[in-house]
Design goal:
Layout (H helix, E strand, L loop, with lengths): L1 H5 L3 E6 L6 H13 L12 H13 L6 H5 L2 H7 L3 H16 L8 E6 L9 H12 L7 E8 L4 H16 L4 E7 L11 H9 L3 E6 L7 H8 L5 E4 L5 H10 L2 E4 L1 H6 L11 H6 L4 E3 L4 H4 L3 H9 L10 H10 L17 H7 L1
Parallel strand pairs: 1-2, 2-3, 3-4, 4-5, 5-6, 6-7, 7-8
Helix pairs in contact: 2-3, 3-5, 6-7, 7-8, 10-11
The chain binds guanosine-5'-monophosphate (5GP).
The site of guanosine-5'-monophosphate (5GP) has 17 residues, from strand 3.
Amino acid sequence: VKFIKTLPKAELHAHLNGSIPISVLQDLAREYVSSGAPPVSETGLSNEAIQAAMNRLLDGPTLDEISHFFTLFPAIYALTSTPEALARATRAVLSEFLDGEYPQCTYLELRSTPKETLTMSREKYVRVVLGELARYGVQRVGLVVSLDRRMGEDVLRECLDVAKKLKGEGEPVVGVDLCGDPMAGDMASFQKYFEEAKSAGLGVTLHIAETVNNPASETLQLLSFSPDRLGHATFLDDVAKKLVAEQNTCVEICLTSNLLCKTVPTLDDHHINHYLRENHPIAICTDDILPFRTSLVGEYALLMAQPPLGFGMSEDELIQVGTRDIVLIGPELPSHLHKQNKEEQEDDI
Ligand code: 5GP
């Protein structure tokens, strides 16, 4: 485990509101409920509904399908809907990934969807998150602004404008993401926003082919946006696989997330096997450590564990996966991620 802990690692697919430590969320929930506060989020959830969702979180992930998992978020949003609570939650997420003797990762591209609440505009939301990122500096963390598939054009425009504006101010907004309910939205209306993001120098990462129900035509449409990275890419057909191989697009792999959301039945069936066989760039990521109760160290441990529990990778293979192939959409590859072989790695231990 020490080897994994000291391996320089980048976490490139972590959703802020899916990564809040449970203790912090519980504190926020206790304060929220005891204050007798009315529903404060745009979701308009009642305290009872929030409490029910909290109980589900505390009972452990009963995530039979990917759709169950999405029902947790409205409650979490209610708890992070003031600037103070959002700052506390963000600070805890950053600390979870970046603090301590052996931080989970040496570089983090954290992503979040700007939300409008009674006390925050979307711009304020992003500024609050960036205020916390500033404690670490651009060599350690960047922000990816998520665009949710359920967003209408007004909100998409607002989010993109906020991302461009803050990047223009020199803030570490490194890119935009497409996320949210995998079956929602018409991707044709998103194209111009992603094109505009690219023209503004923002990186683009897209959740793609996440469920078996995502049509092949949509996958091709999303690939035509020329993304820098792909989230999941679980159900690519042969045509899409060929395109992804030609474009050499880095795929963000979230093993535990896929297993618990049951989009992949076993590690043996996981699409990582295809990308490993093809020597295709991948980045090992956590997705949402809160409901999936995982960590980046845990995800790497799955790579090293012997089959059938894991992939039985050697230390050298792990270094290759961890540091050689990843593609940042943020700044240049920080030098601490340039480690190429075990000897260099051992020098650091
Ligand atoms: P946030 O953007 O609010 O910080 O993080 C939570 C949001 O990320 C969720 O509401 C959802 O839109 C998105 N999200 C988290 N995990 C996944 C995932 O595995 N797939 C997709 N498509 N979206 C996700």
